[in-house]
Amino acid sequence: MALPVSTSASETFVHRFEPGTAPGLPPLLLLHGTGGDENDLLPLGRTVAPGAALLSPRGRTLEAGMPRFFRRLAEGILDEDDLRRRTHELADFIEQARAEHGLPAPIALGFSNGANIAAAMLLLRPEVLSGAVLLRAMSPFVKPPAATLGGKPVLIVSGSVDPVVPEENAARLAATLSGAGAAVSHRSLPTGHGLSQADLRLVRDWVAERQARAA
Amino acid sequence: MQINGIHHVTAIAGPARRNLDFYNRVLGLRLVKKTVNFDDPTTWHLYFGDAGGSPGTILTFFPWDHVAAGRLGVGETEVTSFRIPEAAIGYWTHRLIASGVAHDVPQKRFGETVLAFRDPDGMRLALVAVPGSESEPAWDNGEVPVEFAIRGFHGVTLLLDKTETTAAILRDVFGFVEAGRDGNTVRMRAEGTAHGGVVDLRAAGGFLPARMGAGSVHHIAFRAGDDAEQARMVKTLTETFGLRPTEQRDRFYFRSVYFREPGGVLFEIATDAPGFAIDEPADDLGSTLKLPAQYEPRRAEIEAILPALA
Q1: Residues 6 or more apart from B55 whose CB is under 8 A from it?
Q2: pLDDT (tens digit, 9 = 90+) per residue, B82-114?
Q3: In this structure, what are the phi and psi dihedrals at residue B202, rounded to the nearest 5 degrees?
Q4: At what angle do helices A113-124 and A80-101 cross, to 10 degrees?
Q5: A40, β-bridge pairs
Q6: How many whole angstroms separate alpha carbon B122 and alpha carbon B129?
Q7: Who's near B2: CB < 8 A, 6+ residues apart?
Q8: Rounded to whole angstroms, what are the CA distances from A180 to A58, A87, A139, A207?
Q9: Nearest CA in chain A to B44
Q10: Residues of B with CB below 8 A from A160's CB?
Q11: Cβ atoms B253, B268 nearer than 8 A
């Protein structure tokens, strides 16, 4: 039996795909946090971007049985070599999925670990994404690679009492992405690492504005 | 003396402004506490009750702007009911019609007249005419005449697969006794308490499980007079029923443990003390936003981000 010469998107990442019902909207790429899976952010995606196609992969590394998108050495200390490798894997998956479903470049919507790999993708493979919403993200690289983001819209939402991501770290991420040419909006909420209703309102408004411009 | 019965009921609502208007203005309950969800200070936690915020009268909500509707099913509170004077059924039927509130025609259940209706999120509520309740104190909100006003909870109806174990927990842990049967419903009653003394257990068999959302009850809290009584209840739950309640959590107005009863409904045991007047005078209950100490330094930030109530 001949081996397939190429793999389809479904063979590389366990994922869920929900086709869009409103044509012309950019799809959302949903990236869960540690211990989540491909089902976690679908309700959030449906709420903040009604009618948009949703692509939601499950992270391929495990930490004590909990799916993640890349390894970390300790809480708040990322394994940058693994992050680079996993970012390219995920970017390849997105390109395959786009080809299979005929999708334009998605807006990433990531929480925590998922937001960190979305930030890494903006820096390593910017052409894959049309924008990103980074919830409780931290700076993925100590020395960020040079990137050209050409005005891509990015919303960063931090928690001002987040015990995982210090405010300084989130501010550094915002500065890195702005320096690379992204149109960054950085908001801070009086919350911890968990998502709040205010996150939902901010993301919904931000996505609606992007969709209005795209329409 | 041990006083049993329901302490409070907590549910999930849609937009906060609509929730406040319905319970405060249409139903005439007092907003007795205005605070935030301690786990998400960008979400309101609104408490409604009688004039003094007494245990057995407290209905609380987490209002979420964009929450999807829940679906009623097994393992959930089906109906939350309030006590009203017998002479008030006609008044409330008119008030619900005038307010555009969907309701059923009054029916007799367990010998009592029941007027069932829905709140704006589809939450199932009922007013139950209870003889003698006209002499109980009521909140005067200037909209609903005191003679017709709600007197606190009558009780709740739980939709369960089977009722036996839940009935045993109500009996052995919370001091309820079986007070009657009507079809597939068992009525459990906490004697010696006016407010929140009724829990109806409705056996629905293998009906669909509930899905939490707007209009869903999140949990039912039962009363414990103090920490020692709560600890005794936890001991019975552990030793007799093999359940594992949570550690005690300080909810500031009461101290709570939680457990999921075998029928699937989330139960809480809440202490009567210290009550809602701990951080504002009884006359001013609900007038200002109250924050737990850890959020007080961020009051301006939190006030700016909470959805407007008026």
Answers
A1: B3, B5, B7, B8, B195, B196, B223, B270, B272, B275
A2: 999 999 999 999 999 999 999 999 999 999 999
A3: -110, 115
A4: 80
A5: none
A6: 22
A7: B175, B225, B229
A8: 28, 18, 14, 22
A9: A197
A10: 298, 301
A11: no
Query: Using a CB cutoff of 8 Å and minimum separation of 24, what contacts does A82-90 make?
Result: A83/A116, A83/A117, A83/A120, A83/A140, A83/A141, A84/A120, A84/A124, A86/A60, A86/A61, A86/A117, A87/A117, A87/A120, A87/A121, A87/A124, A87/A125, A88/A124, A88/A125, A89/A12, A89/A60, A90/A13, A90/A57, A90/A117, A90/A121
At B63-75, the pLDDT tens digits run: 998 888 999 999 9
Question: How far, in Å, CA of A39 to CA of A56, rounded?
Answer: 7
* A32: annotated active-site residue: no
Residue B126 to chain A, least CA–CA distance (Å) = 30
Phi, psi of A99 (to 5 degrees): -65, -45
Distances (CA, A) of B176 to B191, B197, B293: 7, 8, 37
Q: What confidence score (pLDDT) does residue B221 get?
A: 98
Closest chain A C-alpha to B301 CA, distance in angstroms: 6
Q: Which pTM value belongs to this model?
A: 0.88
Q: Map tokens 């849609």 to a residue.
A: B14
From A40, A130, A162, A199, the catalytic residue: A162
With a cut of 0.85, is the ipTM above it? Answer: no
Number of H helices, E strands in chain B: 5, 16
Question: Which SS3 state, helix, strand or coil, does residue B79 take?
Answer: strand
Q: For the range A166-174, what are the long-range contacts, defined as Cβ-Cβ under 8 Å and sequence gap of 24 or more?
A: A169/A138, A169/A139, A170/A137, A170/A138, A170/A139, A172/A139, A173/A119, A173/A134, A173/A137, A173/A138, A173/A139, A173/A140
Closest CA to A144 of A164, A127, A169, A109: A169
The answer to whether B99 touches B80, Cβ cutoff 8 Å, is no
As given in the structure block, the two tokens for residue B285 are 């209950």
Distance from CA of B298 to the nearest CA of A (A): 7
Please indicate whether, in this complex, the C-beta atoms of A198 and B42 are within 8 angstroms of each other. Answer: yes
Suggest the residue from A158, A187, A197 to mutate for an interface test with chain B (most B CBs closer than 10 A): A197
Pairing assessment for the beta strands A131-135 and A153-159 based on DSSP bridges: parallel
Element (H, E) at B290: none
Whether the ω angle into residue B262 lies within 30 degrees of 0, i.e. cis, is no
Exposure of A166 in the CB half-sphere (CA atoms within 13 A): 6
DSSP element (H, E) containing A188: strand A183-189
